[in-house]
Amino acid sequence: MDKVQEEIIEEFSVFDDWLDKYDYLIGLADTLPAIDPSHRTEQYLIQGCQSRVWVDARMEGGKVRYAADSDAIITKGIIALLIRVLDGRTPREILDTELYFIDAIGLSANLSPTRSNGLASMVKQMRLYALAFAGKQAAE
Questions:
Q1: pLDDT in tens, 106-120
Q2: Scanning 19, 50, 74, 96, which has its CA 20 to 30 A from the CA of 110?
Q3: DSSP secondary-structure letter at 40?
Q4: 49 catalytic, yes or no?
Q5: CB 118, CB 112: distance < 8 Å
Q6: Shortest CA distance to 68 belongs to which of 118, 5, 13?
Q7: Do residues 85 and 96 make contact, with C-beta atoms less than 8 angstroms apart?
């Protein structure tokens, strides 16, 4: 069981209406770790997102640390949730983590198809960073 994902599911369970969940998601945008302004470039831009989303990752003490930004407030809230779950874990833990909270809070069911594609692209990019770091660790 994943403690952070369970906390997120609990937080979203207090809302009956999806509009309230969207409001909560928008509020989460403020919790996003700030990305270095020099990383708001094409190199860090996630392909497959309708809005612009930049994600950066670095290794710190064997753990992956993420930072991100987006020009769309709901997308910013979504990436904040992903970072909350995946940040500070080892590359292997990130690759092994099943992100079940996405379905449990009804996120995938209530996003437009373009936002759902964007969500999948964000998850894919975060896992690719972890995969690259895992490869570097194995080579050392």
A1: 998 888 888 888 899
A2: 96
A3: -
A4: yes
A5: no
A6: 118
A7: no
